[in-house]
Design brief:
Oligomer: heterodimer
Strand content of chain A: under 5%
Number of strands of chain A: 0
Number of strands of chain B: 9
Distance between the termini of chain B: 38 Å
Number of helices of chain B: 9
Distance between the termini of chain A: 22 Å
Helix content of chain A: over 70%
Order of helices and strands of chain B: EHEEHEEHHHEHEHEEHH
Structural class of chain A: mainly alpha
Strand order of the largest sheet of chain B: 5-6-7-3-8-9
């Protein structure tokens, strides 16, 4: 099919997509917080409560794994607590962003049936709203922890890289599941299970070393593990950012994103028959 | 140059029954070896026509004839399976009012987002908010959520937004049936303005009197095919005659004809064919339209 729309060069297309994104993110955030700005911090309650629970239950037993040798001021319980917090922040971003992306295409089926829009703006805007929320809510906390623990501005500069990897993983997953949801309306049940499996196989509240060696590869397959480890290495260790950890995190981000992008593009053509 | 030109556009879509299938069933079917590819139905069959610049084209036909589907192809929402569709210019769709509004959000915010959806620029929409509110006579409701508006008000609002910027092609699908009399007059007045400022208008309606009053030409769709295309009064008369004589127009599918898609495609229409030539440019072959005149015999000749 040939379709020539006057003035449809790349730049105006890009600008239009950005404006659509802006409007959709605005709608999304407004729907969630109804103008109460503090609502963003409400979402911090969950990781803080979970962190406290984990520390109370597992803190004493897991603390030895978090001990920093030759440091007289070391507090392994505090190390465990912060490690769990960073893990929770990571996994919560992924869970919240992807489960909000899941219905994004289907929910906007009626507008997609009226106006010609680039379908991908809907999942992307759901992720973007979560990025915004992360930057206001969790990021300042991470910055503070990084400054206190690492005493190094370089670690602060490195902090955005695992976050970019996290965004890519969430975006890739979000694109895949939002496309699949068009075809399989019972997907949320399965996705709930997947999220549960992912959050258990990511070392959020336990040290990765307690997993037997022969099962360790399962953790390595989980793209969130490397991202989480990179976050922890940068924010919690008193050492320079580990470049290899960052590269590893970014690689897994890029792979998941590319898969999601390809799946979405491939299925996109058939959306309209089912919306 | 013609703003809209369709050449042998055919469209296949999944059938309605497929809408509710789920992962569990698909996986189980797959394991049991019962999985089939979803069947597709021919909803537009070799549709060809062109719309002239500044023309007002009415589209009539029974429910399920493919009128709205045709508009979706023209709007670029659906891609034709076969054939080509050329569309030049900015399209403003008004298919079903109120879709795309966020009911929780205020009228002002919705004006901006809806305007951007329709292809406007955000900063232009912010500038135009007052004018749109004034035209829709909703100044007092600027900050109320859209869900608090009545359906007539919602219709006024979306009409006001969609027609605020001059679109090159305006699509109206059963819009005029909502709103009070004063709104209808106002809407008609605005359509006239848009038309004067060289808009092309596509108008879908079951209200044949309005079609007669407003349209230059009429396209009569029947089961995915173009039945007739031409002079408004002539086509509307033929259509009414066919309806009154109980000719077979509508949802029933005919037995497969030799040259139609076996068991799938909406087969050709019987009986209600009028004079074969309407003096229109033959952008489609008459055979496509009049095939299958066997059957129950002619009603009007």
């Amino acid at each position: 099919m040939t379709r020539s729309i006057s003035g449809s060069h790349l730049r105006s297309q890009l600008r239009r997509n950005l404006e659509l994104l802006q409007v959709l993110v605005d709608m999304n955030l407004y729907a969630r917080y109804r103008g109460s700005f503090l609502g963003v911090y409400w979402s911090m309650l969950n990781p803080i409560i979970m962190m406290s629970i984990y520390t109370v239950i597992f803190g004493k037993n897991f603390a030895p794994y978090y001990r920093i040798p030759d440091d007289p001021h070391d507090n392994p319980i505090l190390n465990y607590l912060l490690s769990a917090l960073v893990g929770l922040i990571t996994i919560n971003f992924f869970t919240a962003a992807t489960s909000q992306t899941l219905p994004s295409v289907v929910q906007n089926g009626s507008i997609l049936n009226k106006v010609r829009l680039p379908v991908a703006v809907f999942p992307v805007s759901a992720i973007a709203a979560n990025i915004f929320q992360f930057l206001i809510g969790s990021m300042p906390l991470l910055v503070l922890i990084t400054l206190v623990k690492s005493h190094n501005i370089l670690n602060l500069i490195a902090l955005p890289f695992p976050f970019i990897a996290l965004i890519l993983v969430s975006l890739g997953t979000g694109l895949t599941i939002s496309a699949l949801f068009v075809f399989f309306r019972d997907l949320p049940y399965f996705y709930e299970l997947v999220v549960f499996v992912i959050s258990l196989t990511t070392p959020v509240f336990y040290p990765a070393t307690i997993v037997p060696d022969k099962f360790r590869f399962i953790l390595a397959l989980n793209p969130l593990s490397s991202i989480m480890e990179s976050f922890r290495q940068i924010a919690l260790k008193e050492q320079l950012p580990d470049l290899m950890a960052i590269v590893y995190a970014l690689m897994s981000g890029i792979i998941v994103f590319v898969v999601g992008f390809v799946v979405f593009r491939k299925l996109q053509g058939e959306f309209m028959d089912l919306l | 140059m013609q703003p809209i030109c369709l050449e042998n556009v055919s469209l296949r879509r999944r059938t309605q029954e497929e809408f509710s299938y789920d992962l569990k069933r698909t996986v189980l079917y797959f394991l049991e070896g019962k999985y089939k590819h979803p069947p597709k139905k021919l909803v537009l069959d070799q549709v060809s026509f062109c719309v002239e610049h500044r023309e007002k084209l009415g589209i009539i036909g029974a429910n399920g004839a493919g009128k709205s589907t045709l508009l979706k192809v023209i709007s670029g929402i659906l891609q034709p399976t076969q054939g080509k569709a050329w569309v030049c210019g900015r399209i403003s769709p008004l298919i079903e009012l109120g879709a795309g509004f966020d009911p929780q959000n205020s009228v002002i915010k919705n004006i901006i987002s809806y305007g951007v959806f329709l292809g406007g620029r955000r900063r232009d929409m912010i500038r135009r908010v007052d004018a749109i509110l004034e035209w829709a006579e909703l100044e007092d409701y600027a900050h109320t959520p859209v869900k608090a508006l009545s359906s007539g008000m919602t219709a006024r609002l979306s009409f006001a937004i969609a027609t605020d910027t001059q679109p090159d092609i305006l699509i109206l699908d059963e819009v005029m049936s909502v709103g009070d009399a004063s709104f209808r007059n106002k809407a008609q007045e605005r359509m006239r303005q848009l038309w004067d400022a060289s808009s092309t208008i596509l108008f879908v309606s079951h209200d044949l009197n309005t079609v007669r009053e407003t349209c230059d030409r009429v396209l009569w769709m029947d089961r995915g095919r173009v039945m007739r295309w031409g002079n408004t009064n002539e086509i509307v008369d033929l259509y009414l005659k066919a309806v009154n004589e109980g000719a077979d127009i509508g949802l029933h599918h005919h037995k497969a004809l030799p040259d139609s898609q076996p068991a799938e495609g909406p087969a050709a229409l019987n009986g209600s064919a009028g004079p074969p030539s309407l003096g229109e440019p033959a952008a489609f072959s008459p055979e496509t339209i009049y095939q299958g005149s066997g059957g129950e015999g002619s009603n009007d000749q």
